[in-house]
Amino acid sequence: MRRNSLHDGGFGMVKTALIYPPVSDPTSGYHSLCCLAGYARQFGFEDIDIIDSNIDSWLYTVTPEQIGRTMQYINERTAQLQALEQPAPIEQMELYYALKVQGMNFAGALPAALHTFRDETEFFDYRLYTSAVETVMLWMDALSLKGFPGQFRGFSLATSGFFNVFNSMDMRDTRITGVISAPFTDYFRNELIPGIITGGYSLVGISITYVAQLPFALSMAQHIRESCPEIRIIFGGTAVSDYWKYILNKSDFYAVFDSADACIIGEGESALVSILQALKHHKPLPASPNIALHPRYQAVHGASALEIKYEDICSFPVPEYSKLPWEKYLSPFPFIYYSPSRGCYWNRCTFCDYGLNTDSPTSPWRQYPLDKIMEDLRTLAVTYKYIYFSVDVLSPALLLKLAAAILEEGLDIRWGAEIRLEEYWTPERCALLKQSGCTAISVGFESGNQRILNLIHKGTKVDRLQETIQMFSEAGIGVQIMGFTGFPTETVDDALSSVDFLQHNSRHWTFGGLGQFVLTKGAIIAKEPERFGIQDLRPFEGEDVAWRLHYSEQTHLLANTSRWGPKELTEAKASLRSNLFDRPWVGGVDTAHSMFYHDRFGNKVLQVISGTTQTAANENSILELNGHLLEGHYYLPVHKLFNKKNLDNILDRSECEGKAVTAQNLTELLGQWKPDCSSYPQPKEQKLFVRRDGTLFPFPVPMIEFLRNFVPGLSLTELLQQSAQHEFHTELWQHCISNRFLRLKRLPAAEA
User: Among 48, 361, 445, 688, which has the highest number of CB atoms less than 10 A from its own CB?
Assistant: First the structure.
């Protein structure tokens, strides 16, 4: 039985575990818990452990025993699904994903992928790197079959589909969060909970940075609460603060976070120390600023409005990065996030809504002085070479002084940051940043249309944006660029001008592209809708955590089309940087791996990638399958199975009407689904080929037999020696290369 009393005897040292939950970037540790541990140490709280359960839980799934169990479950489940005469849409999607992963030799491929990520030589061989990324992404598809099929988006989680993380009814339903978290349940039970028990912790803090971590964190907390009822549990992190900020009825907040004793809302350093000091002195959990106590404690404190406090960040010590398990991450080098500022010095963009802001787009602007940053960097540079300044934006004047100071001291670091494209920058200043170790920057250019930039209040000119991007690029700094389409009053031509801008300047930026505008309720646009020609603002029906708003306008870019815009625009946006991976891999903006590749290859990084994604094969090259064949004959119409594309279409139609898809209305929506397959004849006997990226190809038997020739590795010359159809097989060989069905055979280390 759990005690509701606030007074617990026996809390001596207040031994604390700070936990980072799945599912998130596995290439490096996040710095939020390092910052908290460093701050608490100043007040004498040194007995704090950081548990990165994001990487721990995933590595647990790739142990030989767990791989075997997962694949055994999938094989058994596949047989059950294939025996169904009329599978429901979710069962069809489950079968679709099961066929994608069935037959893949994960037991051999996953250890090879981990070695590639951690080995410097293999990491920078982009052919090997591509194979490693596709292997672990396919494994995430396999893991999703223990939860909701296709629930993962790489190392993130779909926020809506079979559930909706912005619907408090879905997130308070332990059956739903339990299914979502099922891929990691064995880890929770067999590794995490025993470790917490043997660790003797009095307090567990769970930091949720991204909303994709929310269901896993909630399920994790429930496991901890059931196994260790005496332990205090607190939640914190950006996603928790956003949930508090956007939930329409605050009384529903703790229906979601019921396993917690308290949640830290906003900046957490002082709040954590207040909790630690209370527990140390056997006092009740405090109703201090930024601490939202569970309602069960209101009998002690009484209900009151939550007071929000912003920290004096200049008093912060260097974060405790040494507490992270660096040897576990999927990277060849350590990569740290370091935050020398909070808020944004510009703080005027009309679309922005970040942090616990009130009357401005972001939280208050605060920045370390130069001496403080250099003091920290001297300490960090001893151990860490790759540093990303993880801030909203850094002021140009400080960056320039910082670059000069780094050069003067001779610190050997590589760094990146997000900056504004100010007129302040000159070729000489860009060159100074490069000399100090700047390998890449990220910039929000937002739009290539001046009218839209003026509405955004970006404070920039299109022609000047082009000049500044070129200056950074010519200095040898990789420019990662971010923008969006769909801003209120934007026409298709306006949006295409952003595409044109990026295409015209394609030589001067590396990674990035154009996203889609989303209106949030704290943005200036939402507060002054008439100014932007929009009306009928309301939360999406079904999302009581109203982080985004639906609205209408007279000439809406998305009217009568997809929520992503007309086909002409979506295709143009997709063409900007094709065949690149997204976060957290090379190709994602501001990722560890992108920084490593920028450092190694400079602005030629795209040439390196494009040169290795196209198999440079000749007639004597030994090629092998870039994927696997599924043995057995299939008569099922694979192209008719309900899959992710069909689910996305349901989401698309609903959201265009201002309705969110949740677990409550999904059954009805799925019942309305009819397969659109009039152009497809009923397939005859077919077999399946699964490309390494998980794409499923139902092929006729002759095509499968052609591909089978390459299972052991084969050259075109050897193939033609066995063939009477030289011209046809040569064309088919070229077709298989261009469609990535074949790849250069990876030689054993002794032969390489």
Answer: 445
What residues contact 264, with CB distance under 8 A and at least 6 apart? 234, 235, 236, 240, 271, 272, 290, 291, 292
3-state helix, strand, coil in the chain (%, to 5): 45, 15, 40
Residue reference for tokens 């306008």: 553
What residue spans of 633-695 are helical by DSSP H?
644-656, 666-671
**Backbone dihedral region for residue 302 (phi beyond 0: left; psi -120 to 50: alpha; all else: beta):** left
Count the alpha carbons within 13 Å of 468 in the hemisphere toward its beta carbon. Answer: 21
Q: Give the 3-state DSSP-derived string for 349-408, with helices as H, strands as E and coil as C.
A: CCCCCCCCCCCCCCCCCEECCHHHHHHHHHHHHCCCCEEEECCCCCCHHHHHHHHHHHHH
H or E segment and range at residue 171:
helix 168-172
Paired strand residues for 655: none
pLDDT digits (tens, 9 = 90+) for 59-69: 999 999 999 99
In sequence order, the 6+-apart residues with CB closer than 8 A to the CB of 676 are none
Token duo for residue 156: 């993130």
**Beta-ladder partners of 49:** 17
Q: CB 12: neighbour CB atoms within 10 A? A: 12
pTM score, two decimals? Answer: 0.93
Q: How far is Cα 325 from Cα 52, in angstroms, rounded to an integer?
A: 8
Rounded average pLDDT per 10-residue block, the chain, 752 residues = 37 86 97 97 96 98 98 95 90 93 93 98 95 96 98 96 97 98 98 97 97 98 97 97 95 96 97 97 94 82 76 96 98 97 91 79 90 97 97 90 97 95 93 97 95 95 94 96 95 95 95 94 93 95 96 64 74 84 94 97 90 73 92 67 92 93 93 65 69 89 93 94 93 93 74 40
Q: Are strands 623-625 and 742-744 parallel, antiparallel or unpaired?
A: antiparallel
Residue 623 phi, psi (nearest 5): -110, 155
Which of 540, 443, 446, 530 shows the shortest CA–CA distance to 485?
A: 446
